[in-house]
Specification:
By secondary structure, this protein is an all-beta fold. The chain is 0% helix and 54% strand. It is built from no helices and eleven strands.
Length: 118
């Protein structure tokens, strides 16, 4: 497994923006598929976005398409989630995750709280 650490969460007003970062401790960063998930109070964890570091392909949940962007900095072994036009529905604990090709997401960060006020 790869060790992951999220940062960048906080309190933001509706309509604002926030950028989350996920630092990965691995020397084979480019072999992973990285993902962002979130879990709101009383709800199940849901998929937000993913990035295949080898193929460069991305996937987004319909609820965040056009508002969120996942990107990477290979030199820093870091994946980012740029979140724009935030609404209170985006309030959740956001988790960074990683998997190797053909595997399940089995490496998880501790999560970072994102709170959007109305």
């Amino acid at each position: 497994q790869v060790q992951l650490a999220e940062s960048g969460g906080g309190l933001v007003q509706a309509g604002g923006s926030l950028r989350l970062a996920c630092a990965a401790s691995t020397r084979t960063f480019s072999r992973y598929v990285m993902g962002w998930f979130r879990q709101a109070p009383g709800k199940e964890r849901e998929f937000v976005a993913s990035l295949n570091l080898s193929a460069g392909t991305t996937n987004y949940a319909d609820s965040v398409k056009g508002r969120f962007t996942i990107s990477r900095d290979n030199d820093k072994n870091t994946v980012y989630l740029q979140m724009n036009s935030l609404t209170p529905e985006d309030t959740a604990v956001y988790y960074c995750a990683a998997r190797i090709r053909s595997g399940s997401f089995n490496s998880w960060g501790q999560g970072t709280q994102v709170t959007v006020s109305s």
